[in-house]
Amino acid sequence: MKVTFNKIEKNENEYAVINAHERTNAICAALELLENGEQVIIGYRDGESVPCPISQIYYIETVDDKCFAYTKDSCIEIRSRLYEVEGNLDYRFFRCSKSMLCNIRKIKSVKAESNARMRAVLLNGEIVIISRSYVKDMKKRLGL
């Protein structure tokens, strides 16, 4: 996609124009970002509310009926069900198993595993297994 930036005078109002064939998830996310800024998830750590931009989240996982979001070097608890969180996230996240969502932009590499599963190495070095029922969607999103 071609992107153009035009600098305007300080006394002019800023605006953005997007020309596209259809309103895709990526365009909706760009519009949301332009209109409202970075999407944030509120999590909890040590009894305190912690706002976390979704761009910093590597993956979200359910463990023992609790939902956790993992960033490069920390973890916060999210007081929602995984399907509720999934409904509020944009195109960057995909379900990789029944208990996990992964940020596609945080994947460093993928490799085929046994039983038609795949292994994804994230930018922080963690390994995530993509269940066979979700491999097709992940391949489509990565363009494989």
Question: Could you explain the architecture of this structure?
Answer:
The protein is an alpha+beta fold and 144 residues long. The chain has a single domain, classed as LytTr DNA-binding domain (OB fold (Dihydrolipoamide Acetyltransferase, E2P)). Helix content is 21%, strand content 35%. The strands form three sheets. It has a five-stranded antiparallel beta sheet with strand order 5-4-3-7-6. Strands 8-9-10 form a three-stranded antiparallel beta sheet. A two-stranded antiparallel ribbon has the order 1-2. Strand 3 (59-63) and strand 4 form a beta hairpin. It is globular, with a radius of gyration of 18 Å. The relative contact order is 0.13.
Task: Give the SSE layout.
Layout: H1 25-36, E1 40-45, E2 48-53, E3 59-63, E4 66-70, E5 75-78, H2 82-88, E6 93-97, E7 100-103, E8 107-112, E9 118-122, E10 127-130, H3 132-142
Antiparallel strand pairs: 1-2, 3-4, 3-7, 4-5, 6-7, 8-9, 9-10
Structural class: alpha+beta
* Count of alpha and pi helical runs: 3
Query: What Rg is obtained from the alpha carbons, in whole angstroms?
Result: 18 Å
CATH top-level class: Mainly Beta
Question: Which overall shape is indicated by the principal axes computed on the Cα atoms?
Answer: globular
Poorly predicted runs:
none
Say which CATH homologous superfamily is assigned.
Answer: LytTr DNA-binding domain
Number of domains: 1
The name of the CATH architecture is Beta Barrel
Strand percentage, roughly? Answer: 25-35%
